[in-house]
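user:
I keep going back and forth on a fold encoding question. Separate attempts, laid side by side, tell us more than any discussion would. Would you put together a sequence-and-structure record for a protein of your own picking? Write it directly below this note and I will take it from there.

assistant:
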Amino acid sequence: MSITTFREGHKADPGYREVFMQVLFQNLIVTAGKPGFGMVLSISAGAINVLLDYIFVVPMDMGIAGSALGAGIGYMIPTVIGVGFFAQPKRTLHFQKPFVDFHVQGTGYGTFT
């Protein structure tokens, strides 16, 4: 995310990937049996966003670009923590190498298998 692209009016990445991943990880953390941890991540994302918005907009005088930067960073932190949470193989839900099996069982027709 570049501050200059916001000021020049070009299409820029407003941090939608971080927001998407934070919401996804929050839901999956609740599914993994840690709803309190998911709530802490969500609240921390909002608190960091508010703090960084103030820092970037008021003292640094960055305007709306500073607000966008604060939001992107605010949601990036819980995203990184979520990746770390699911990277541990001892968890009920965790990242795993994809396995693809192209073997077709039965006749290949759904109603006749």
Helices lie at 3-8, 16-31, 35-57, 63-86.
